[in-house]
Structures are given as structure tokens and as C-alpha cells.
What we know:
- The protein has helices at about 5-20, 20-30, 35-40, 60-70, 80-100, 115-120, 135-140, 150-160, 160-165, 200-210, 210-215, and strands at about 50-55, 60, 70-75, 105-110, 130, 145, 170-175, 175-180, 185-190.
- The chain is α+β, with helices and mostly antiparallel strands.
- It has a single domain (about 5-215), classed as Glutaredoxin, CATH 3.40.30.10.
- The strands form 2 sheets. Strands 2-1-5-4-3-8-9 form a 7-stranded mixed sheet. A two-stranded antiparallel sheet has the order 6-7.
- β4, α6 (about 115-120) and β5 (about 130) form a beta-alpha-beta unit.
- It is globular.
- The chain starts with a helix and ends with a helix.
- The model has no long low-confidence stretch (mean pLDDT about 95).
Amino acid sequence: xxxxxxxxxxxxxxxxxxxxxxxxxxxxxxxxxxxxxxxxxxxxxxxxxxxxxxxxxxxxxxxxxxxxxxxxxxxxxxxxxxxxxxxxxxxxxxxxxxxxxxxxxxxxxxxxxxxxxxxxxxxxxxxxxxxxxxxxxxxxxxxxxxxxxxxxxxxxxxxxxxxxxxxxxxxxxxxxxxxxxxxxxxxxxxxxxxxxxxxxxxxxxxxxxxxxxxxxxx
Length: 218
């Protein structure tokens, strides 16, 4: 089963539980993010290279990683998001193939390292999970947004206290996004999802690692 099939099945079950009114609210809010997604950093640009805290208690220099190998960088909203957990597990399943192509896989969320550690342990992730708690990387890629009042109220109802989980006091999130970055830092593939229930298939990111552009950039 494809990742998107799993996401669609979860969405259908979720809609049945919460009802059409809440589902319509989420649909409308997601649609309003399309303009932001259209303005996000695209293929051909240089991928930003900040140093971020990782789930192991250390720091990871993205610039150093890009100097060594190609990267797949995937942004997720948080360990509280079931769609994100499905995506992370799908990437974990492909990790041996990604590594075999000489590339690295990292995931990034706005959550604090304690929360990213929980996510990594819960999903048995063997790749690095980074904390972009100040949103520096998400802002540089132009994928961060502030939640609207209705969505904030909905998340509060569901117990998703983002200002605490993310440690920055803000109700903001990155749109889910995946980037394939060539060795040296050029973005080869950029996929940004204004609807968080739609994600790039991990196999598409894997395929981009073996594209002619990747080989030429290596």
C-alpha cells in the first residue's frame, strides 16, 4: 500500500469520527495555504544550512552534511500528528535504500528535542530528527505559517498545545515538505503540502536521488 493510500484511509476514518463540520473547517483552512506554498523555495535554489539540535541531545550542522552527501530532508508537524507518523515510518522503511545510494535522511519538526526523541523512539526511527524550534529553517524555506483562530481552537480542543510542545510560545507550524538536496546544497526536488494529509511518496524522493541531476551535482 502506498503512503498516500494509508493517509487517505486515516483521513476517511477521522472524518467519520469528527463529522463534516470539522472536516470542512480543516479543508477550508488547508486551501487557504496554497498561496504560501506557491511562494516556498523551489528547485534550483540553495538549501539553507543552519545548525539544529537533534533528538540525541547534540547538534547537527546541515551545511556539513550537504558537503558530504546528498540529503533527503522531510518536515513534519509534530509527533502528535498521525499523518506525520505514517510518513516517518514510510521513510524509515526506505532508509536502507537511501543509504545504499550514498545519501542521508533527516526529519525536521518545530518540536523541542525531548518531543522529537519521543517521536523517534515511538516510530523506531534510525535517522536523525532535528528541532527547528525557532523556525529558522522553515522561515528560510518560506513554509511556516501562523494558525488561524478556528484551527487554534480546534487544536486546543484536541489537546495539541503547540506553544508548549514547540517551546517558542507561538501557534505556528511548517507545512509538511520534502526536499531532495544534491551534495553541495542545490535543491533538486521540493514538495510542499498545504494540505497536511497529502505527502510526497517516499519512493519519489528516492528516485530523485538517482536522477541525472543528482549524478551531475555529485
